[in-house]
Amino acid sequence: MPACHTDTPLGATTRRAPVLARSIHYRIDPGNRDARMRESAAWRWGPDAEAEGLRSGRADVKAVALLEPRRFEIQDRPVPTPEPGEVLIRVAAVGICGSDLHAYHGNQPFVTYPRVLGHELAGRIAGLGAGVVAFAMGDRVCVDLVINCGKCYPCRIGRPNCCVSIRVMGVHVDGGFAEYVTAPVGRVYKLPDELPDDQAAMVETLTIGCQAVARGEVAAGETVAVIGAGPIGLVAMLAAKARGAKVLVSDLLDRRLELATSLGADAVVNSGRESLGDGVARFTDGEGANVVVEAVGAVAAVEAAIEVVSAAGRVVLLGLGSKPVPIIPTTLIRKELDVRASRMNSRRFPEAIALAAKLTGPLGAMITHRLPLTSAPEAFSMLSASPESACKVVLKP
Ligand SMILES: [Zn+2]
Ligand SMILES: [Zn+2]
Fold first, then answer.
1. Is the ipTM of this complex over 0.95?
2. Where residue 59 falls among pLDDT bands split at 50, 70, 90?
3. Which CATH number fits domain 20-201+359-396: 3.90.180.10, 3.30.390.10, 3.10.20.30, 3.40.50.720?
C-alpha cells in the first residue's frame, strides 16, 4: 500500500496576474492572418497556467492514461485548448470512483480505451475560451461529467443523463486524471469558499446520492434502507437524511458501518451476521423500508431490496450489476413496487454543491487517502487488493 499523506487544501487562489493572449498557430492556416488575429484574441491563459510556465514554453502537462485494463501510463501531453464556449481548468483534486475501478478491471460497460479516467474533479479556471463571460480566471469550480445532445427524447424531457448520444468525461472522453482539462461552460459550476478542494471533488459523488433519492422520491419522515456502505451508499444515505428520511445502512464490513453511523445513519445492519429483513423489520416496525437504494450490484442485494421494501415502495438500483436477477412478477405486483434505475445525475450539481457546503464534516471523514496524481497506479492496486482499507481516495495533480 502506498504511503498516504494529508495536506492543507489548496483553497482559492488570490493571485491575479495580468491576462495574456496566446496565438494558436497550429489550429489555423498560416496564411490566414485575419483568422490568426481573431484566434489570438479568442482565448486567454490564466495565472495558474502562467505560474506553471505553460505560456513560456513548458508545452506538456501530466495525465494518467489507462491504456487497457490494469495498465496505466503517466503521459506528457500538450496543454488542452479550450474551444469557444469552453474553459480550461487546472485540476486541484480528483476522486477515484468505484466505476473507475470497474474500468481498471475491464468490467465498466460504458468505458472505451485508452482513456484518461476521472470524473470527480475540482479545480480553478486557468483559461477562457472565446465568448466565455460567466467565469473569471482563478474561479474555483467543479464539473458535471454529463455532456448530452439536447435533442433526443431523454434530453427533451429533461433527463440529460440518459441521452442516447451521451459523452461522459472520464468514460467516453478524457477526464480529470490530469493537470489540466477543458469543459463546456454549461457543465462548470462555481464552488463556495467553505468547501475545500478535496471535498469539492466529491460534489459529483454527492450528485449520485441526490439523483438516487430523487428517483426514489424520498420524502421527509419516510424510511430508507441503503444496501452497501461504500462511498455511493454513504452519499445516498446523506442525501436521504437531507430530505428528512430515517435511514438504515447495511454492509458486510463493520468498519464501513461504523463510518455510516458516524456520518449520521439512524441504524446499521451487518448483513453477514443478521438478516437484512430482520433488521429492516425492526427499524420500520414491520412495515418494510419505503425506499431501498441498492448500491452493491450483486444479485443477492437486488433480491434483498425487493424483499425488504414496503408495499407501495420504491427500489432504486445504483450498483452496476451484470448478472441476471430472477424476478417474480407477482412479488412486484403484490406490493405494486416501482423498481427504478438511477444513472449518474440529471443536473443536480447546484443542489449537491449546496448540500456539500453543509456536509464538510462528513465528506471530509469519507476521504481516507490523499495521494499525488502520479500515484494513481499504486492507488488502483491498493483499492483492488484491499477495498476495505479505503473509502474515498482523492488524487492531487
Ligand atoms: Zn463516479
Ligand atoms: Zn440527448
1. yes
2. low
3. 3.90.180.10
